[in-house]
Specification:
heterodimer; A: 310 residues; mainly alpha; MetI-like fold; 12 helices; B: 320 residues; 14 helices; 78% helix; globular
């Protein structure tokens, strides 16, 4: 694999770098939560009428919430819950999607047809209502939430992986390996999977962002685990427990910004990576105005990462 | 031509069948099934059996399934546990409200999305482009419900708009126009939320679609003929970008449903989304089951219409 070209290409892609930095800050925040947060959200506090929805001051920088807890600390600890759900759920999605895509693409024919038909059906069924129904029947809980988001989020991955597998399968070196007598499993593991994997990584970034958005939505709708304060759960409490009428903007705005921060970071990173693997022209014939220019002079797009085994 | 339509129609029917089966077995197999909802500890053994007989719960699962399908075909979705009204009646009212919201929001967001997307692509790599790009990306990344909360917060305190519902409770109207004026005031913020969120997505999509078209050789040819940029955008780029746009708008309908659920919850808009969330809170399974079915079938129909529309707009699809 020619991965040496990856570093410089990545750094030249400004969007991807910004996205990666945004994501890294969130991960650091989650990892160092006990040291960064000024208060422990789980510690028992004595609550008076004045400490509920108290506006920001020098002690509580982002004020307090409906239970008199520090919003900033909740926000920092909330990163743990939101990111954990995002990573675990997308892990499930990637495994299912990767397997379905590899099997469908590699075996082709009837297997491919059946698997893709199922994928198409699932793609059409609206996700959120199905998640709501599943959680309503299975009960609320942290792992149930992860499972439900995970098992409904694999369709995109399956399609991407299948398309790539189909094209790799027909390449010369795969045909040659087969001619020498390599088994199916060996070919998939040694020749196909390494070429499919980079695409899966790009896809994973986008799957994680979708999972985090789904988690916050479900938690806001009251279908999350009420004992774990994710960003969506914070919004649920602030919205349903009088944060609006108390005018407590400090309990409503920050969790939303946190979600936007992470999802935007992941989206930028994902799109940037996609552009590195699959460069597209960003300039065009009308970009130079009305004069006739044979071809707008632009920086040569970076060559596509060739990861063909030599 | 006919074969294409038939294939798409058959495919949609198959998907509906899958949803019906899924909808039946989910509610029977997973914990919290309706058979258990009947099991009230205060009931005697005899009345439990009577109830189960009455609802056919003593029959084998496959027989129950045929009953279920038979009832569905007659438009019978059961009775709400909570409201003691037929589910069909409840859902019919909610569906109209949701369609009103989604319809208005979709029209506005498509118009804005197309305009901004074309503008961004045209002025690509300039401040205009970057501004539009960042704005749409933020709208894309923002949770719909959170955006609704912020608009609600701002609209109700600064614009004096109602905080939720569809009509002012206890209001008397001099005529239908006053009633619709009231509905309009209630609809303003939910529709605005919807419009901004989805306009962001359509802008991003339009931008990349138009960018691709602008790099085509026929754009260069049009320029060489001496057409002004405005003309090229209107007659060459926009027309060709409409095709993928139709698909995306239709494919997006699944997500639209999600957005409607979130927005309706924030603004207490009495639509299908609100009905679903209420049903979950009250463990009103017949309503939940019916609402899910209705949503799924609506999205499948929308996809079917998109496929047919696409084949009408682009005749190549029918052959290929």
């Amino acid at each position: 694999m020619e991965t040496a070209a990856f570093g410089p290409t990545f750094l030249r892609n400004r969007m991807a770098v910004i996205g990666a930095l945004m994501l890294v800050t969130a991960v650091i925040m989650a990892a160092l939560a006990p040291w960064l947060a000024p208060f422990d959200p789980d510690a028992a506090t004595r609550v008076t009428i004045d400490s509920i929805y108290a506006p920001p001051d020098s002690v509580h920088w982002l004020g307090t919430d409906d239970a008199g807890k520090d919003v900033l600390s909740n926000l920092i600890y909330g990163a743990r819950v939101s990111l954990t759900v995002g990573f675990f759920a997308s892990f499930i999605s990637l495994i299912i999607g990767g397997l379905v895509g590899l099997i469908a693409g590699f075996y082709g024919g009837r297997v491919d047809n059946t698997l893709m038909r199922i994928t198409d059906i699932l793609l059409v069924i609206p996700d959120l209502p199905l998640m709501i129904v599943l959680i309503a029947l299975l009960g609320r809980g942290f792992w149930i939430l992860i499972l439900v988001i995970g098992i409904l989020g694999w369709t995109g991955t399956a399609r991407v992986v299948r398309a790539q597998t189909l094209s790799v399968r027909e390449r010369k070196f795969v045909q040659r390996a087969r001619a020498i007598g390599a088994g199916n499993f060996y070919i998939v593991r040694r020749h196909i999977f390494p070429l499919v994997f980079p695409l899966m990584v790009v896809n994973a970034v986008l799957v994680i962002s979708a999972a985090i958005l789904n988690e916050s939505t479900l938690a806001f709708l009251g279908l999350g685990d009420p004992t774990r304060l994710s960003w969506g759960q914070m919004l649920n409490f602030a919205f349903r427990r009088g944060g609006m009428s108390a005018g407590a903007w400090w309990s409503l705005i920050p969790p939303g910004f946190a979600i936007i921060w992470v999802v935007l970071g992941l989206t930028l990173l994902g799109n940037g990576l996609e552009r590195i693997f699959n460069p597209k022209l960003e300039t065009h014939h009308l970009a130079v105005g009305d004069e006739m220019v044979a071809r707008p002079v632009a920086e040569q797009p970076p060559p596509p990462l060739s990861i063909q085994p030599s | 031509m006919n074969q294409y339509i038939l294939r798409k129609l058959g495919w949609a029917l198959l998907t509906v069948a899958f949803v019906v089966v899924l909808n039946f077995f989910l509610f029977r197999i997973l914990p919290g099934d309706p058979a258990r909802a009947v099991k009230d500890p205060r009931l005697t053994q005899q009345s439990i059996e009577a109830l189960q007989r009455r609802f056919g719960l003593d029959r084998p699962l496959h027989v129950q399934f045929f009953f279920y399908v038979g009832n569905l075909l007659r438009g019978e979705l059961g009775t709400s546990f909570h409201q003691q009204r037929p589910v069909t009646t409840i859902l019919a009212e909610s569906l109209m409200n949701t369609l009103l919201l989604i319809g208005a929001g979709t029209v506005f967001s498509i118009l804005i999305g197309i305009a901004l997307g074309v503008l961004a692509a045209w002025k690509s790599q300039t401040v205009v482009d970057y501004g539009i790009l960042i704005g749409s990306l933020v709208a894309w990344a923002a949770p719909t419900f959170w955006f609704g909360i912020i608009l609600l917060f701002w609209g109700s305190s600064h614009l004096g708009l109602p905080i939720g519902g569809k009509l002012t409770i206890g209001a008397n109207y001099a005529g239908w126009w006053e009633r619709w004026l009231d509905i309009g005031r209630h609809m303003f913020l939910p529709t605005l939320t919807y419009t901004i969120i989805y306009a962001g997505q359509y802008t991003l999509f339009m931008r990349s679609a138009v960018l691709e078209i602008f790099s085509e050789d026929y754009i260069l040819t049009a320029k060489a003929k001496g057409l002004r940029s405005m003309q090229i955008v209107r007659d060459h780029a926009l027309r060709n970008a409409m095709l993928p746009t139709v698909t995306v708008v239709a494919l997006n309908l699944g997500f639209t449903v999600a957005g409607a659920i979130e927005i309706e919850t924030v603004f207490s808009w009495p639509g299908l989304g609100q009905a679903i969330i209420d049903a979950v809170d009250r463990q009103d399974y017949p309503v939940l089951q019916g609402a899910f079915l209705l949503l799924a079938i609506s999205v499948i129909c929308a996809n079917l219409i998109a496929d047919l529309l696409y084949s009408y707009l682009d005749p190549r699809v029918r052959v290929g």
